Amino acid sequence: MSKSKVxxxxxxxxxxxxxxxxxxxxxxxxxxxxxxxxxMDGHFVPNLTFGPPLIxxxxxxxxxxxxxxxxxxxxxxxxxxxxxxxxxxxVFHAEATKHGQRLAETIRAKGTRxxxxxNPGTPLECAFAMAPHVDVIMLMSVNPGFGGQSFxxxxxxxxxxxxxxxxxxxxxxxxxxxxxxxxxxxxxxxxVAAGARILVAGTYIYGARDRDKAIAALKRVK
Length: 222
Prior knowledge:
By secondary structure, this protein is α/β, with parallel strands linked by helices. Helices cover 38% and strands 18% of the residues.
C-alpha cells in the first residue's frame, strides 16, 4: 500500500449483484486500487450481507487487493475465516473486539494486513491505542449498516486529529487513514487534505454514469 497517493476502494455494497463479476472488472479497469467488501452480520449492524464464500470467489477473479471490512459482533471468533477466504486487508471494529491487539497480531501473522474501524461516536483514543498494531485505521463517516447515507461532516476534523497524532508518534508513514461512508469528490478532497489516504466510495462510483470519471475525480483530490 502506498502512502504517496490517494487510493480508491469502490464498495461492492453498491454494485449490481446480478452482474457482480462484470462490475468488479469495470472498476478495476477504471483505476480502482482496492475492492471494498462490507461484511455485515445483522447483529453488530442491522443489515446482513456477505460471507467468506463470496470473498473467496472474488479473490479468484480480482486483479487488485481485497479490503474486507467486517461489521460483526464477534470479530475475534470469525476473523480468520475471512483471512483464509482471501482478504488482503482485514478491518475489524474497535467496538466489537475483545482483544484488538491480539487479533491484529494474529491477522498479520497469517500474511494479511490488519486494520481497525471506529464508528462516528467512538473516541479517537481507541485508534491511538490500536495504531502501533495495525496498518489501517478506518474512520466511519456514516453510522454503519447501510449504503447511500449522508456524510457526517465532523469526520474531517477527526481525520485531521488522527493524522497529526500519527505523525507525532512516528506512525504517519506506516499507518494509513481510511474513510468510509457518503464520500464524493468534494468531501473526498477535504478528507485527503486532512490526512486520509484510502477513500471508500460505493454509490458515488457504482451509481455513476461514468465510473472512470468518478474514480479519476477521487484520485485527483489534493
